[in-house]
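Kindly inspect both lines:
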Amino acid sequence: MSKYIVVIVIILSLLSGCLTTGSEISIRKHDTPPGEYTEITEEELKEYPVLEKAISDEGCTKFNENSWRCKINSGELSRIMDFTNKKRHKYLFSMDERLEKDLNEGIITEELKNEFESKGFPLSNIARQARQLSEINHLADGHWEIGDQRYKIWKEDGKLNIYDSVAYYTFFKVGEKYYKIDYCVN
């Protein structure tokens, strides 16, 4: 029985492209957008030189003209994953960081409800009636989610930025090309 499990794990790893040691980024280039996408600007890319190298296939293992994989140290991969995770979600609005205390305590206050409503994103009736921890989740990577909502909140540059977690972009536009970026963390 255990031989079959090992074989299944190996097959799944091969299919996902993650049968290596270490952390990697896998990139597939497209000339036209194969689906909805979000853009990574040149300025943003300069803040992530390892991602910039990977997108240009510098120092990577090429599978073909449009597909390659690059080894990346795990710390840098984590930083890139955090950046691209934010980019994959549609930005909605920002609110003052003074509301961070309420988020950390898991409290949906009137002020928090009013902030969402004033920006055109009212919280649901369930969230409106909630008071404690089950409605706001503070996640390990430093962002919050409002439980029954489609909102993710990241603290960036002294503001709390709200993103739509349902509008998820699979592809990134960089310059005039489109890329699908996947990660392998071992």
Confidence is low (pLDDT under 50) at residues 9-16, 128-134. The longest strand covers residues 159-168. Residues 14-89+170-184 form a domain with the Alpha-Beta Plaits fold (CATH 3.30.70).
